[in-house]
């Protein structure tokens, strides 16, 4: 193994953006993934991670030749060595979207062999790229101070200054007495109410506490995903959100789209692409509180049948209450991969909004085997989204349309939606 470059400073000319919030450079035969730079810039970069092999990671710490699209960073805590939140805050919004468009298009070619130029669209309510977020979850350090995780680190930045959410969301949060190791959920809901909830530290097993290997990491992940006690500190703990004329009271720590313009926009796309007609059957998988199920039922009318599948029992309870006037929607509290084989009605339309890791082969093969004519697939990670698209293509579906939205301004994250239809 060659000598580690960790801590080394190198002068680089930056190339194209890559998936994950970095720009790609090459030095002495190795690939360097550089954060906080822009394509075409010449920078001095400090290597922050080197595990050997063909690549390493670095931060641009000095800009020698700046891009004309570089701006004063809008996030004061996310620069080199800082929080992992706003990795694109040094770029104009236009260039942020261009970089995301390039990454989405590249991932589709590389992982799905789909040649498609995808333009990332602005969502309503984005403004200058700040204050768009409706909810944020903070970590709490060993001294009881809340903050944001550093990039690829368990370290915490406790200066509550990230501009993704309105600064008023943080009022009084830093001064409160929080339990070390807990998390703090802050929500600014659709009714202009603020909710602050403390989530108890995960109960980590002895293996998770003492092992630094794979078993320890798996134990810590399992503990983080297990139910945890919650304490409402401010507000009711029951945010109210809206899509169109319908409202959803939901759990303060439950899932809702982070960008205030996302839920409405995605619902409109789903309704348009689904083309529901009288008597149609549809599946809404990974449905949360049933936002897409409502869109499907609303366009199809009372004679349609919509099966909504969600593993969170709290979300299912909230969804049933919100959609009580839509008896054509049937909620199932189960994991998608278990529920599909038992769903009572073969669908003409399927909508999937899986977690960041994607739906995966087993779910997609089960969905396509059910024979849906139209599939609307939503993904918040370009790589897993493209892998899933490739799986549909292998099952005799074709991409009819793809749209992408800048649902996370100032960051490298992007939301993608695809319409797939059966046959060629």
| Structural class category | alpha/beta
CATH fold category name of the largest domain: Rossmann fold
Q: Mind summarizing the main beta sheet?
A: 8 strands, mixed
Domain count: the total is 3
In the predicted model, the low-confidence regions spanning at least 5 consecutive residues are none
Folded structure, characterized:
The chain is of the alpha/beta class. Helices cover 23% and strands 28% of the residues. Strand 3 and strand 4 (30-35) form a beta hairpin. Helix 8 packs parallel to helix 9 (382-393). It is globular. The protein starts with 8 loop residues before the first strand and ends with a strand.
Keywords:
alpha/beta; 9 helices; Rossmann fold; 3 domains; eight-stranded mixed β-sheet; six-stranded mixed β-sheet; OB fold (Dihydrolipoamide Acetyltransferase, E2P); 424 residues; 28% strand
């Amino acid at each position: 193994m060659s000598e580690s470059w960790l801590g080394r400073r190198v002068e680089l000319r930056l190339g194209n953006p890559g998936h994950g919030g970095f720009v790609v450079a090459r030095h002495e035969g190795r690939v360097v993934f550089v954060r906080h730079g822009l394509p075409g810039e010449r920078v001095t970069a400090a290597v922050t991670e080197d595990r050997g092999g063909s690549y390493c990671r670095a931060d641009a710490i000095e800009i020698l030749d700046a891009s004309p699209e570089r701006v004063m960073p809008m996030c004061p805590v996310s620069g080199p060595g800082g929080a992992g939140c706003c990795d694109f805050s040094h770029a104009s919004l236009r260039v942020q979207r261009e970089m995301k468009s390039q990454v989405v298009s590249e991932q589709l070619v590389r992982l799905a062999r789909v040649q498609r130029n995808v333009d990332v669209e602005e969502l309503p309510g984005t403004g200058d790229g700040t204050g768009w977020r409706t909810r944020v979850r903070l970590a709490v350090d060993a001294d009881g101070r809340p903050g944001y995780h550093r990039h690829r680190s368990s370290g915490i930045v406790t200066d509550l200054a990230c501009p993704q959410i309105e600064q008023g969301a943080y009022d009084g949060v830093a001064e409160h007495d929080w339990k070390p190791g807990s998390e703090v959920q802050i929500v600014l809901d659709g009714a202009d109410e603020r909710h602050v909830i403390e989530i108890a530290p995960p109960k980590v097993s002895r293996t998770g506490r003492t092992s630094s290997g794979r078993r320890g990491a798996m134990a810590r992940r399992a503990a983080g995903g297990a139910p945890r006690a919650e304490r409402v500190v401010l507000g009711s703990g029951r945010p109210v959100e809206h899509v169109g004329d319908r409202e959803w009271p939901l759990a303060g720590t439950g899932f809702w789209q982070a960008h205030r313009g996302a839920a409405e926009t995605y619902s409109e796309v789903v309704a348009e692409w689904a083309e529901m007609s009288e008597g149609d059957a549809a599946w809404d998988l990974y449905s949360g509180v049933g936002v897409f199920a409502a869109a499907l039922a609303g366009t199809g009318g009372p004679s349609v049948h919509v099966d909504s599948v969600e593993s969170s029992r709290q979300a299912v309870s909230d969804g049933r209450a919100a959609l009580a006037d839509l008896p054509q929607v049937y909620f199932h509290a189960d994991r998608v991969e278990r529920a599909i084989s038992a769903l009572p009605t073969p669908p003409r339309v399927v909508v999937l909004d899986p977690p960041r890791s994607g739906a995966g082969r087993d779910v997609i093969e089960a969905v396509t085997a059910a024979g849906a004519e139209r599939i609307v697939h939503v993904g918040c990670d370009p790589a897993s989204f493209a892998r899933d698209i490739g799986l549909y293509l292998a099952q005799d579906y074709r991409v009819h349309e793809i749209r992408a939205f800048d649902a996370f301004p100032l960051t490298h994250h992007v939301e993608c939606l695809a319409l797939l239809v059966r046959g060629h």
